[in-house]
Amino acid sequence: MVKRSAQLEVDLDLVVHNLRLVRKTLAAGPLRPDGTPPQVAAVLKGNAYGLGSVPVAGELLSAGVEMLAVSCLPEALELRRAFPAAPILVMGHIPTEYLGAAAGAGIRTMLFDLDQAQALSRVSETLGTRTPVHLKIDTGLNRLGIKPDAGTAQLIAHMAALPGIHLEGIFTHLALRDEPSDTGQFRLFERVLAEARVGGVEFPLRHACDSIGMLRYPEFRLDLVRVGGILFGNKPLRTPSADALDVRTPVALRARISRVRLIAEGEGTSYDETWRAPKGGAWLATVPVGYADGYSRRLSTRAEAIVRGRRVPLTGLVMMDQLILDVTRVPEVEEGDEVLLLGRWGSDEIGIAELADWGGTNRNEVISTIGRRVPRVYHKAGKIDWECDYLDPA
To answer: What confidence category does residue 309 fall into, taking pLDDT thresholds of 50, 70 and 90?
Structure first.
């Protein structure tokens, strides 16, 4: 039973709908050498961009997604406990002292360093296993990865010879600045693949594309694409091929008004009183959601919400636990009324992109920062499937 008057609703059917759009797109584009479409790795880092990694992963696995991808080992271990046989890839760095935990759990590991590869090989041999790894190549993002040089092919061959690891994949990440830059990165990645092939090393899974790259550059899809944002309602921007896709938003952030009060002309709201009531005063509604819940302080005085089907402005600064709306234009408003902060109400919608614009951020941040104290309510076939309250697991 959810014990807060704020909750994030997740429509699992719409997540699967977006996965099917990805599948359809891949089937219509360049195929792999064996004639099959590229595989799909569902990126579930950041608690599935805030939606909840375990319930989302369960639906995606049931829908046939080939791999789950996360950023760090604890995220992978959470999924492993729920899905003992699922292919899970950690795309970020795993400290050397925790490689044994990854190998013991059958977690696919990203590597970009020979010392780490040797350490993983040793611990895998001790455990009597052979750990699948994906090599990361840094083609220009300058984040993580092997920086290609004259010795890269030899380094890859050395790693391939280690007995405790299996080079299942190799990947890079495009900076997505512009087409010439992205193409240059991809050509560098191709050169690394060609040099490795000459050295006798082939990779079953080559990948370079995230959600944006998949749609902008069909020829870069290779064997697998890593999609996250598009599954959760974020249609890639500045990508003409995305315009025709019926990407659905599967989330809604709702709360209930805790207090309604009339204030006089000139009275202020919230800290610093950055907003003051106009002539005639204003009716204000207090809502128990704040920046500790992931509703950013940058939305202060910029954002809108929907109350009884009408848009109302946010007044003053967003506080840690609460925000205040001007509901003067909704005279029938009452305490306990529902407030929609993100999602659809009839024909109107406060979308992820609109919230991102108000907050001066990107769309993935809008949903991925929704905090643990906001309960998640999952819907399937139009009904509540189950509820998740991180602060009250019982």
So the answer is: very high
- Measure the CA–CA gap between 331 and 357, rounded to whole angstroms: 29
- What is the reported pLDDT for 1? 63
Burial track 243-272 (b if 16+ CB lie within 10 A, e otherwise): eebebbbbbbbbbbbeebeebeeeeebbee
Which residues belong to CATH 3.20.20.10 in the chain? 12-232
Per-residue confidence (pLDDT) for residue 2, from 0 to 100: 67
Q: Please, which residues have CB within 8 angstroms of residue 166's CB and are 6 or more apart in sequence?
A: 130, 131, 132, 133
pLDDT in tens, 145-198: 999 999 999 999 999 999 999 999 999 999 999 999 999 999 999 999 999 999
Residue 370 one-letter amino acid: I
pLDDT in tens, 67-88: 999 999 999 999 999 999 999 9
Q: Could you give the CA distance from residue 358 to residue 168 in angstroms, rounded to a whole number?
A: 42
> What's at 148, amino acid-wise?
P
Q: Is 383 a catalytic residue?
A: no
Is 45 considered catalytic here? yes
Selecting among 24, 147, 271, 390, the annotated active-site residue is 271
Q: Identify the CATH assignment for 12-232 out of 1.20.1540.10, 3.20.20.80, 3.20.20.10, 3.20.20.60.
A: 3.20.20.10
In this structure, which topology does domain 251-361 adopt according to CATH?
Lyase, Ornithine Decarboxylase; Chain A, domain 1 (2.40.37)
- Residue 138 CB neighbours (<10 A): 18
Q: How far apart are CA 1 and CA 316, in angstroms?
A: 32
Q: Could you tell me if residue 66 is left (phi over 0), alpha (psi between -120 and 50 degrees) or otherwise beta?
A: alpha
CA distances from 226 to 212, 223, 356, 363 (A): 10, 10, 23, 17
The tokens of 86 are what? 């699922």
- Nearest CA among 36, 45, 34 for reference residue 228: 45
